[in-house]
Amino acid sequence: MESTAIAAIELLSDQRICKQCGGSFIANRKHQRFCTPAHKEQYHLDKRHGLKPKSHTSIILVAVQCYPNHTAPELATIVGLTNVQVSRRVCELEKKDIVQRSDEKRWCVVSKQRCVTWREVE
Ligand SMILES: [Zn+2]
Question: For domain 55-120, is the CATH number 3.40.50.1100?
Answer without folding.
Answer: no
